[in-house]
Amino acid sequence: MAIERVGLLSNPYAGSGRDRVLALARDAFACVATQADVLVGPGDLGASAAGGRGTVVGTDASRTRRDTIDTTRVMIERGAQLLVIVSGDGTYNDVLEGMKAAGATVPIFGIAAGRFNTQFPRRKHDPFVSLRGDFRPFRLADLVVDDVPGMIARVGDEVAGYGFFWTTISNALAYSDAGGKVMIVDAARMLAGDVVPLAGAWPVAVDGTRIVVASKQLGEIELARGPDLAMPVVAHIVPELNQILAGGFGAFAEFMGFHGVAFCFHDRDIAFLPTPAHFPVDTRSVAFFAGDEVRFTGLRDGAVLQIDSTPIRTVGPGDVVTVEVAHALGKKARLATTD
Hints:
By secondary structure, the chain is of the alpha+beta class. Helix content is about 20%, strand content about 40%. It has helices at about 20-35, 65-75, 90-100, 115-120, 185-190, 240, 250-255; strands at about 5-10, 35-40, 55, 80-85, 110, 130, 145-155, 160-165, 165-170, 170-175, 180-185, 205-215, 220-225, 230-235, 260-265, 285-290, 295-300, 305, 310-315, 320-335.
């Protein structure tokens, strides 16, 4: 790859902690700055690791994912041909949204700094992580690029976000605080920046709720309707997910050549995952192909659209939410000698 300009972004809120994130970002900047011009995000989004060097672009004014999206867009508009990102998995979704807003998709070289992508280093599907653990210098000229599959979620005609593992409609969100304590919190309150434990199930469906798969090859298949459903999930088929999706149905779907699975629990009292009190667990599953749509209509007002465990926005009965799988949603830069 002939790369003349690189964008460097870091997420100081990633699970490994601000000090670790900035240490990795400093090493990454020192490595890349000897090989190309470097654009950096403001403050802890990149500039804090650059020691006064590099060109600062973008914004960190909102302290939300919107900053990452907007800063990425500016980097692409300023000619970045590669993005080096020190973060957890969720930041990649935001970066891709910024790229799409700018009208170009460039490769991502990801340096793992989140809880999930550092704790599970051997997962076979890793959207963009190219380096884990201690920093190791790399040459831009040695990088190769692979396509990365993912999902596109829309509300009406508007793209709401991009994902690489799953999309769900749920007000229950798994959250871990700075001390590593895991809890289930209210996803709607999290959208406002408030960490509020969720005491019980928050149903997302009502009498008029309907979930269908609209497939070019299979026709329209109804997955579920009515109020008695919980945790509807759409996921593309990846090895670390397909054994658990819908009680192993994902493995069957992958074997049969499908590209995605939609499923839900047929019990509105399930808040997040079923417990023994819900046994036997009634699930419904549908497999589908890339380009097909999973369509949600008539959702309860205030239900939360989540992508890869990130709350995106609330939705309601007037919204049509669709999710589809794409084979080549993003691009991953990696060393030719690594997996």
